[in-house]
Design brief:
By secondary structure, the chain is mainly α. The chain has one domain. It has 6 helices and 2 strands, in the order βαααβααα. The chain has helices at about 10-60, 65-85, 90-115, 120-135, 145-160, 175-185; strands at about 1-5, 120. A two-stranded antiparallel ribbon has the order 1-2. Helix 1 runs antiparallel to helix 2, helix 1 (about 10-60) packs antiparallel against helix 3 and helix 3 runs antiparallel to helix 4. It starts with a strand and ends with a helix. Keywords: Membrane, Transmembrane, Transmembrane helix.
């Protein structure tokens, strides 16, 4: 057993990597959910436009341009509906949320071990085994989500790091005249 001093590179690197996994999977789920909603709304709008164009063709004298526009809208609508179906976004969202929760659990285990200031090699091995299991069962983290999570965590770390204290004023500095008068009496 050894005492954690807060600067062991392995533990610090592990904690940073696990945090990126945790935040990255949360971000990936959020982005996928947004894509799912956008694609669904686009499909609904295109279906409405396609139906309107089709009815316009039926109610007016058939013009070639209107018929072609209705057909193109119908094909684009079918394409977006197909894409919406085959991307399987609800399952992808659920798997990223599950991975985020599991990474969060591993992160809390490591943080708790660090706070106890006594980490055994066996405990580190257990945490590493949990981390490996989570990595194997998680969906691939998109590069953009990983990069954005790392940048976000760096901003948080920079904000949490106290800045260097400013140098105290020199005592032998010349005092201006009004201040000399106040301090002299």
């Amino acid at each position: 057993m050894w005492t954690y001093r807060g600067d062991e590179p392995t533990v610090v690197q592990w904690l940073a990597a696990i945090r990126v996994g945790h935040e990255g999977h949360q971000l990936a789920a959020k982005v996928t959910r947004r894509r799912h909603r956008t694609l669904g709304a686009t499909t609904a709008v295109l279906a409405t436009l396609s139906a309107s164009a089709g009815f316009a063709c039926l109610l007016t004298a058939p013009r070639t341009s209107l018929v072609v526009a209705a057909a193109v809208l119908a094909l684009v609508t079918a394409g977006t509906a197909l894409l919406h179906t085959f991307l399987n976004d609800p399952d992808v969202i659920a798997s990223h949320q599950r991975a985020s929760a599991e990474y969060g659990d591993v992160r809390r285990q490591l943080e708790q071990a660090v706070l106890s200031e006594r980490i055994t090699d066996d405990r580190l091995s257990e945490i590493r085994a949990d981390w490996t299991r989570v990595e194997k069962s998680s969906p691939t983290l998109p590069v953009r989500a990983g990069r954005q999570a790392a940048d976000y965590l760096q901003v948080l770390a920079d904000a949490a790091t106290p800045s260097a204290p400013s140098a105290p004023p020199r005592q032998d500095a010349e005092l201006d005249e009004p201040l000399k008068e106040l301090t002299a009496s």
